[in-house]
Amino acid sequence: MFGLEKRDYTLLIIVACLTMFAPFILNPFPTDSAMAQFNAGYPDLMQRFVIFGIFAIGFNLLFGLTGYLSFGHAAFLGVGSYSAVWMYKLLGYNILPGLFLSVIVSAVFALLIGYISLRRSGIYFSILTLAFAQMMFSIAYSDLIGRFLGTTITNGETGLQVYNSDPQVLHSASKPDIPHLFGQQMQSTYSLDIAGWSFDFNTGYYLCALIMIAAFYIAIRIFRSPFGLMLRAIKTNQTRLNYTGLNTRPYALAVFVISGMYAGLAGGLMACMDPLAGAERMQWTASGEVVLMTILGGAGTLIGPVLGAGFIKYFENIFSKINDSILHQWFAFFPDGIEDAVVFMIHPFIGKGWHLTLGILFMLVVIFLPGGLVEGGQRIGKLLKRGKKSEDKGDGDAASTPAE
User: Fold this and answer.
1) Which of 56, 22, 14 is nearest to 42 (CA)?
2) Topology versus the membrane, per the UniProt entry (predicted)?
């Protein structure tokens, strides 16, 4: 179905079910319980899961298939955000023109940067992409182009946003003054209270989720296509391909542009959720974050980048909110001296120190699961299958052995 093999179709169904039922899956604890701190089913965080999932899926097409490690993909994320906000300023708050422009402009920038960067490989390619991204960050942060043209393009460090004085030629009083899809506001949320649980169903999240499912499906088709096979060959041994007379650069440039379009789409969706674009989305740290997501989940796998994006964004948003007062509530059953000692030991790993916790987890995954979280899931699956086979074999032996 959909031109997919049974294995890929099953994987697509799993991803679709996880995203559609995320408000239930990510809220396992009652709202008033002490463990509600670990719930992640609120709209803002769920939107980040799927948006950065799209970003990581696109990056994985470049890094996972061809082996080209880009440290500048955040540039396309920022370009996508700026493009979407400019469409809000010029036309109106309907998100479709903004998303369309985000993808197109990001593709143009990716074509230009990729054409130059792909003349080198290995670490030299990585440094070139990082250099281009930092140049674009500096231009956006200082609004250099705007100062040269005598007008505002990125609005510098303040960030680009929509004002009442903007043209918005397609906007009318009957339409919302926030991003919407034909009148349906992206921030519109329906809350469902059942017993002690509360579940939020957000319009913006489900739009992003549907787009991520479509992006995941396209990634599967690329992985299984002859084009994807050529990209794998580039990763395996590009020199041998060149010796056969094949010019590999057009294939690498094509996947670089596709990856940049994924990043631009993610940036446009970020502007759909919050109509503001800033230069911080183009910093090298954002580029490094998508690298971590892909490696942590499993580079070169289909679902790995999605898992890595969810893993990192969960720790960033959940563990950064835990503070000493919450820890004291959790360990209040200990005597005062022991309670204070436990809180003192955990304190460096929560709040602003969540990066330390993530770093330790990333180190453990790299050491014990070089294939990322996907490899961990595969190992668990093999253990379960082995245990089931052992039980079946034991039952067979018992059935064939006569009773004494």
Assistant:
1) 22
2) Multi-pass membrane protein
